[in-house]
């Protein structure tokens, strides 16, 4: 297609397979960001469970 314009870029194997986007739109976040998100969710669940256990223990003690 002539006259379309735009910058051309050689695409590597990773880019052709959907990777190599650095977490931009359409790409997946980097592994570190995914790990941080999973750890945060796990810690929030553990905190919630501890609070429920503490409430149950205090209700039984009363």
UniProtKB/TrEMBL annotation:
Annotated InterPro entries: DUF6243 (IPR046210)
A Pfam family reported for this protein in Swiss-Prot or TrEMBL: DUF6243
Region of interest called Disordered, as start-end residue ranges on this chain: 1-62
Biased composition (Basic and acidic residues): 12-23, 31-62
Protein name: Uncharacterized protein
Organism field: Streptomyces mutabilis
């Amino acid at each position: 297609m002539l006259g379309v314009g735009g910058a051309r870029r050689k695409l590597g194997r990773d880019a052709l397979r959907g990777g190599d986007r650095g977490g931009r739109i359409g790409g997946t976040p980097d592994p570190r960001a995914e790990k941080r998100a999973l750890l945060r969710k796990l810690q929030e669940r553990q905190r919630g469970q501890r609070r429920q256990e503490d409430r149950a223990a205090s209700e039984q003690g009363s």
